[in-house]
Amino acid sequence: MVDVTKWPIFSLMGPQELSAIRKACVFGTSANEAIYITNDDEVYVFGLNCSNCLGTGDSQSTIVPKKLDFLSGRKVVSLNYGSGPHILLATEDGELFAWGHNGYSQLGNGTTNQGVAPVLVSANLLNKKVTEVACGSHHSMALTDSGEVYAWGYNNCGQVGSGSTANQPTPRRVSSCLQNKVAVSIVCGQTSSLAVVDNGEVYGWGYNGNGQLGLGNNGNQLTPCRLVALQGLCVQQIVSGYAHSLALTDEGLLYAWGANTYGQLGTGNKSNQLSPVQIMTEKERIVEIAACHSTHTSAAKTQSGQVYMWGQCRGQSIVLPHLTHFTCTDDVFACFATPSVMWRLLSMEHDDFLTVAQSLKKEFDNPETADLKFCVDGKYIYVHKAVLKIRCEHFRSMFQSHWNEDMKEVIEIDQFSYPVYRSFLEFLYTDNVELPPEDAIVLLFVENAFSLLSAAVRYDAEDLEEFCFKFCVNHLTEVTQTTAFWQIDGNLLKDFICRASRCGAFKN
Predict the structure, then answer these.
(1) pLDDT at 200 > cutoff 80
(2) 262-289, pLDDT tens digit by residue?
(3) What does the DSSP 8-state code read for residue 436?
C-alpha cells in the first residue's frame, strides 16, 4: 500500500480520511491540485483550482476536499491531466468526462470555454466505450474497448494525428496506419502521442524535435508512424516524459529515446537519441517503467522489487539509473520529481486486507510474479506453475507435455483462441468450489472441441485425441451445433461417426 502522505498536499488529511482513499492523483504546475476516489466511489478534489481544474463549478481554491456530486457512484477506471490543467476521466461504463482548461478545445466539447464542472464528452463517441485516457500539454486522447484511438485539442505539431496542424475541437478517430490496428495502450508527451497495438508494435505522431517519436529523425509527424527500430520486439508498456519516451518489452527489456538534457534516458550522457536505445542491460528483468509529460524524470522497477530513478531528480541530473530504497516507482515522483506530481492514477487497493483467494486471483496474468507464460494467438498469459499443477491435477494426462517438472518458460498454444484459453486459466485462479475444473472445461471447450480433435489427429497426439473424442461423444448435442463441427474435414467426420456409433452414441 502506497503512503499517499508522501505528497505534501495530502499531509493535512487525518487518518480516517486517508483510510477511505482507494485511488488518487496529484497534478498541476506545482503539484498543488489533487483528486481522489473513495472506497464507496465518491470523487473528491482540493487544491489551487487553476483554470477550474477541480471541477467544483467555481474558480475558488479549497484546502478542504470537496465532493463532485456529478460523478458520485461512478467507478473510475482511468484518469489523466494536462498542463492547463485539464482533466479527463473514464468510468467503468465507458463514459468520458472532462473539465478544466479548454483554450485549445482539449475538453472535446467543440468550444474553447473553460470547463468549470465535469461534462460528458459524447461527440463522435456515441456507442463507444472508453477504457483509457491520456493528456498532453493541451491535447487529449482516448482508447476504446475495440482498440480505436481518438484525439482532439491542440494540434500545432500534428499531435492529434489528423494529417494537418489545425486544432481539433471534438474527438476524431486517429486512422492512417492505425486504421486496421487494435490499440491496447496510449500515452502523451507534451506535444507528442504514442500508441501500442496488440502485436506489440509502437506508433508515434506529433512533435519530434528531440526525437521523442523514435523514428530516427527529428521531423514532426502529422499522422501515426511505426517505430521501425523496435521491429521484432513486443512492447508491453510505454511511457512519455516531457520530451522523452521509454518502452518495456515482454521480455523485460527497456528502451529509451528522445530528449536527454537531464539524463532522463539513462544512457550515461546528455545526448538526445533519435532512435530507441536499450538501457539497464546489466540489470535484472524490468517489470514496470514510469514517466509523465510534466517532468523530466524516469523510473523503473525490477522483478525483485528494486526501484531505480534517473533524469531530473530534485534539481540534479542523474544520467544513469540510480538504485533507491523505494518500493514502488510512485515514490520516486513523490520525493524527487519536479513538480512532484503522480505519473499515473495511483491505486491503493489495501492489499493487507485481501483474503488468500483474493490475493491469488489478483496475481493472475501478472508478469511481475509469474514463472510461466502461455503464448496464444501471439499474446502472452502469465501464470504460476504451482497454481496450475494444484488446480489441474485431474487433467495431467491431457496436458502431460506441459506439466513435467522442467516446464519451459514459454508454452505455445495453437489449439485454442486467446479468449477461451485465458478464461480457462483465469478460472483456475478463482475460489469457485461449486464449479469443478471439469465443468469449466465443458463450458469453455464446447466451441473448440472439434477444432482441437482435428489438431490432435493431425499431430498424432493420441492422449489428446482420445480425450477430445470422449468429450465430443459425451456432449454430442452441444458440440454438433457449433461452427467448428460443420467445418470439419469430411474423412474425419466419417471416422468420428463410425467411432461414436460403436460407443453407442446414437442409441435411442
Answers:
(1) yes
(2) 999 999 999 999 999 999 999 899 999 9
(3) -
pLDDT computed for residue 440 by the predictor: 47
Kindly state whether residue 314 falls inside one of the protein's structural domains. yes
- Residue 79: the pLDDT is 98
CB 195 within 8 A of CB 136: no
Counting every residue, how long is the chain? 508
Residue 435 has pLDDT above 70, yes or no: no
Which of 329, 351, 373 is where one domain is finished? 351
Burial degree of 38 (CB within 10 A; 0-12, 13-18, 19+)? middle
464 burial type by CB count under 10 A (0-12 exposed, 13-18 middle, 19+ buried): buried
pLDDT at 416 over 90: no
- pLDDT at position 508, please? 56
Helix, strand, coil fractions of the chain, as percent rounded to 5: 25, 30, 45
Q: What's the whole-number average pLDDT of the chain?
A: 88
Rounded Cα gap, residues 266 and 269, in angstroms: 8
Instruction: Give the angle subtended at the CA of 149 by the CAs of 146 and 151, to the nearest 5°.
Output: 150
C-alpha cell recorded at residue 135: 493528456
Q: Does the residue 34 lie in any domain?
A: no
The answer to the question of residue 6 being in a domain is no
- Which of 351, 368, 384 is the C-terminal boundary of a domain? 351
The grid coordinates listed for 423 are 478464461
- C-alpha cell belonging to residue 343: 505519473
Cβ–Cβ under 8 Å, residues 359 and 351: yes
Give yes or no for residue 353 having a pLDDT over 80: no
Side-chain-side CA neighbours of 201 within 13 Å: the count stands at 15
Please tell me whether the overall predicted TM-score, pTM, comes out greater than 0.90 for this model: no
Give the cell for residue 116: 468549470
Residue 204, beta-bridge partner list: 194, 225
CATH number for position 436? 3.30.710.10
Helix or strand holding residue 173 (H, E): strand 168-173
Pairing outcome for strands 346-347 and 202-206: unpaired
**Which pLDDT band holds residue 314 (cuts at 50, 70, 90)?**
very high
Q: How many domains does the chain have?
A: 2
Residues 388 and 261 in one domain: no
Same domain, 401 and 422: yes
